[in-house]
């Protein structure tokens, strides 16, 4: 079998990379072992234009938002699903200091921030004493709908092999690679944390962190069976942790950011702490239906890894999206495909060749 590109992984990066390859008429095949615990499949799907305790604008957010609107609409139309919903974050102030910080940022740069007309509007659903601010121009990507739908499409077109990738079967040449019966001009790794141990990319400054979340049923939630079905902005709630609509009318609550962990599995400590927090915050009763965990492929620089290995030009990577994969992956997948097709340069602060020195050792 001859293909232009062999793609390893079908998370958020692999999905949008293959979408853009298809748009450009570039032949490909994907190898992906379907696992529910990958970072893409465990993520809430939130695209938030501000970040951190200082409530500053997310890197490149103005460009990323408009790009995300278009590409999610296009792939959703192809799959006949609505995979991106306008949203707003209801940010309950956990401390007086955080309230003051929000008000200060609102005065300095109100582009994505608002105060509610009625700070008691959510008091029937939540316990809170210090009011809340709102972050506007957010989006909620329906990853539980998008990723399986795109996978089914690839399977139906015989473009995906559902199996684990066996590195020992890969032969890398200067201008092509061979993997089992597949010959391709390029292999591109979109395999998340698997690249941490790659012989090609393990020297990159990955900074893996673990996240956990609970999946809840909240039977008495007032907005109906699914807030995702709302035609208006979908409310997402935050007070240290985030509560967001999930698939099938359920809710996702999380997430932790653990930089030191012994294994990637869900922990009893997180479950107990989160359930105790929810009992003090949520007024409606809830049932925990699932407990998920994953390790995010974050980076020390908080910038993705995009492009081709300096010593092995047939070997590429699209990885390191961290917690911003829903906005970064579509944009930089497009940039990587434009580089392949039209030799357009990759943005220098994400181009993996910025690490040529360490990758050449």
Oligomer state of the chains in this structure: single chain
What's the number of domains? 3
Radius of gyration: 21 Å
Q: What structural class do you assign from the helix and strand content?
A: alpha+beta
Q: Strand count, sense and closure of the main sheet?
A: 9 strands, mixed
Shape: globular
According to CATH, the homologous superfamily of the largest domain is FAD/NAD(P)-binding domain
Helix run count: 8
Mean pLDDT: 93
Name of the CATH architecture of the largest domain: 3-Layer(bba) Sandwich
Percent range for helical residues? Answer: 25-40%
Keywords:
361 residues; alpha+beta; FAD/NAD(P)-binding domain; Alpha-Beta Plaits; 3 domains; eight-stranded mixed β-sheet; 27% helix; 27% strand
Question: Can you walk through the features of this model?
Answer:
The chain has 361 residues and is of the alpha+beta class. It has three domains: 2-41 and 145-206 and 300-359, FAD/NAD(P)-binding domain (3-Layer(bba) Sandwich), CATH 3.50.50; 56-139, no CATH class; 209-223 and 240-295, Alpha-Beta Plaits, CATH 3.30.70. It contains eight helices and 19 strands. Strands 3, 6, 7, 8, 13, 14, 15, 16 and 17 form a nine-stranded mixed β-sheet that branches. A hairpin with a 4-residue loop joins strand 10 and strand 11 (177-179). The longest helix has 19 residues, at 61-79. The model is unreliable at 224-231 (pLDDT under 50).
